[in-house]
Write a structure and sequence with these properties.
Number of strands: 32
Largest sheet: 4 strands, mixed
Radius of gyration: 25 Å
Strand order of the largest sheet: 3-2-14-13
Length: 451
């Protein structure tokens, strides 16, 4: 964790000096190539960029446009980008664009430039790229890594929309692919062999044109049911299971049926303190409880318990903290431990409740989301992220580091953590009994094995 904090200082200094992800290319150079600075217009997030004499212009190689992945451009387009000396470049889609257009100093650019095909490690969405096998390899130009705007990179990995307009002679890159169909997937039941999913689908359908000749759309909704087979990772359409009605009626604390361990239940108590103030602004107090084998443990005030897992000696639970505004909660997952027998720390007594995520050793993370417990290796599985920027009432958004954040195991006795997979943006995660993690990614409409 010390190295991570040192890295944060380095990243801040880098942002202040150059606002780039940059590094000395010659130290890693394997080979070079020639690329062209194109003469067409270039637009980022619907803003035209005058790049002809920019220090970091777009490039064209074999008819494909290459985008400079500077720190500023990555933030503009919803990415986290991190360079770690000795370990390489880490980039991840975050879904949090900044909308702040970066500017870079001008220079005189020739028509054709030399670029380096780098051999330093490059990680994208938690996976290491093999640049030697790419048809359109990544480049390094003036200390900045360039990505080709192929369908695979732009659409499938970065969720960018790319457009070419011959009439305007313009190549455009916009955050968030314009998709006619949108998905929302929930897990409503888990068993030892499979997870059962319900997918809501919204599809835009043209119904005519208005007086200006513009197409008018309506939305068609549908719902389908699927099963995720843990052994194969295959997702197949299935019939609705009886457990869906119980989950949909809210009788399972918004958790999949079968997720809470045997003998464990959660309870969230809320009391309004001034009924004269109308909803949703009515002041309230709240408290979260976890019951283990008939004994109830008070976790804390102004908390909403979201999940719990059980090990032979402890019960770990997640909670979100109310912000004091309406019924909104912070996006941070706080992690608590109920010591059932005592002894996890010096002086611990049976029944002690300890908050874990705010301890100094975990200062790189302000959110530690419980995925589950693996009985075979005795480890907790967590998804860890940096904390949110939260000013007052609203919950804010979790921040992302493509290097620090991701999936970890935690030793239940010592608290030692081990990285399993670096960060990838998922809507939900499923942990199987053997420790396999499947990520549900709605914008891609995929379920992917992550480890």
């Amino acid at each position: 964790m010390r190295k991570n904090r040192c890295f944060r200082t380095f990243e801040l200094s880098l942002a202040l000096l150059l606002a780039l992800v940059s590094f000395p290319a010659p130290a890693f150079a394997a080979s070079s190539a020639k690329a062209v600075i194109p003469n067409y217009n270039w637009s980022l997030n619907y803003q035209n960029i005058d790049y002809k004499n920019s220090l970091y212009p777009p490039l064209n190689y074999k008819g494909v446009t290459y985008l400079p992945m500077t720190w500023g451009y990555c933030r503009l387009l919803g990415l986290s980008s991190v360079w770690v000396e000795g370990e390489g470049l880490f980039i991840a889609y975050t879904g949090q664009p900044s909308y702040e257009m970066p500017t870079y100093r001008a220079t005189h650019n020739p028509k054709t430039v030399s670029v380096v095909i780098p051999t330093y490690p490059i990680w994208l969405n938690g996976k290491k790229l093999d640049n030697s096998r790419e048809e359109y390899p990544l480049f390094n130009f003036r200390g900045v890594t360039y990505f080709p705007m192929t369908w695979r990179f732009a659409h499938e990995e970065l969720n960018w929309n790319t457009d070419w307009s011959a009439a305007e002679n313009c190549f455009a890159v916009h955050y968030d692919v314009d998709r006619p169909t949108h998905y929302k997937t929930d897990v409503y039941e888990v068993t030892d062999t499979a997870a059962y999913l319900v997918k809501d689908v919204w599809h835009s359908v043209p119904v005519g044109k208005n007086e200006l000749g513009e197409t008018i759309y309506t939305t068609e909704n549908s719902q389908k049911f699927y099963s995720l087979d843990y052994a194969t990772g295959k997702v197949t359409e299935s019939a609705q299971r009886p457990s869906y009605e119980e989950w949909a009626a809210g009788r399972t604390d918004n958790l999949p049926v079968g997720q809470l361990p045997e003998g464990v239940s959660i309870r969230n108590e809320m009391q309004y303190t001034d009924e004269s103030i109308p909803a949703p602004y009515t002041p309230f107090t709240a408290c979260g409880f976890v019951t283990v084998d008939g004994k109830e443990y008070r976790i804390g005030e102004n908390l909403h318990i979201t999940n719990a897992v059980r090990t032979p000696d402890f019960v770990f639970c997640n909670a979100k903290r109310y912000t004091g505004w309406k019924h909104w909660t912070s996006p941070n997952f706080e992690l608590y431990c109920i010591d059932l027998h005592g002894g996890r720390s010096n002086g611990a007594k049976p029944g002690d409740v300890t908050r874990i995520d705010n301890q100094e050793v975990y200062s790189d993370y302000n959110s530690m989301k419980l995925l589950g417990y693996n009985r075979e290796n005795g480890q907790l599985y967590l998804k860890c992220q940096q904390g949110s920027n939260q000013d007052w009432g609203e919950g804010g958004e979790l921040q992302v580091s493509a290097y620090n954040d991701g999936y970890y195991t935690m030793n239940t006795w010592t608290g030692a953590m081990r990285l399993v997979r670096r960060y990838i943006d998922t809507d939900q995660d499923v942990l199987t009994p053997d420790g396999t993690i499947y990520g549900i990614i709605d914008w891609k409409n995929t379920v992917e094995r992550l480890n």
